[in-house]
């Protein structure tokens, strides 16, 4: 899906939820939509500064926080980077990421079996899962 279509979809979601999709948030969203794979906050800041020279680290972090809360992006904790979610209509879906350590490619997958197994184990421990991101590192088919 093109970045323009993704942006229109995100704008519609924000409108429906009654949240402000500011210019800075839109710019960061588009940068993420146009970027292949995961990107760190400071690399995003560098790209944003080519559009808005006045952008500061706080600009990026506020935008990423908003985008994350809306379910538009996922933070990859193990590499401290962000990736756009391409099915953000369901912002509470379980997230499973395959991360290539060679080329940096990130693929989001959804395995109901993995989700069910994790929930079953959590229930057995009387643990309530409120947010789930499973990160798996290895090599993609291009790097194998």
Automatic annotation (TrEMBL):
Pfam families linked to this entry: FUR (PF01475)
Gene field: zur
Lineage of the organism: Bacteria, Pseudomonadati, Pseudomonadota, Gammaproteobacteria, Alteromonadales
Subcellular location: Cytoplasm
Subunit structure of this chain's protein: Homodimer.
Keyword Mitochondrion found: no
Keyword Nucleotide-binding found: no
Source organism of this protein record: Thalassotalea profundi
NCBIfam families (UniProt xref): PRK11639.1
Keywords, comma-separated and alphabetical: Cytoplasm, DNA-binding, Iron, Metal-binding, Repressor, Transcription, Transcription regulation, Zinc
Similarity-based family: Belongs to the Fur family.
Protein name: Ferric uptake regulation protein
InterPro entries: FUR, Fur_C, WH-like_DNA-bd_sf, WH_DNA-bd_sf
């Amino acid at each position: 899906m093109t970045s323009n279509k993704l942006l229109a979809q995100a704008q519609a979601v924000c409108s429906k939820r009654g949240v402000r999709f500011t210019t800075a948030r839109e710019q960061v969203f588009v940068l993420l939509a146009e970027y292949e794979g995961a990107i760190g906050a400071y690399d995003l800041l560098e790209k944003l500064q080519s559009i808005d020279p006045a952008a500061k680290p706080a600009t990026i972090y506020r935008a990423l926080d908003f985008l994350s809360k809306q379910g538009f992006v996922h933070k990859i904790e193990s590499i401290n980077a962000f990736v756009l979610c391409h099915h953000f209509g369901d912002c509470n879906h379980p997230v499973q990421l395959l991360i290539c350590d060679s080329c940096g490619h990130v693929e989001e997958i959804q395995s109901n079996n993995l989700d069910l197994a994790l929930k079953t184990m959590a229930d057995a421990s009387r643990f309530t899962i409120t947010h789930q991101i499973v990160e798996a590192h290895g090599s993609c088919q291009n790097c194998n």
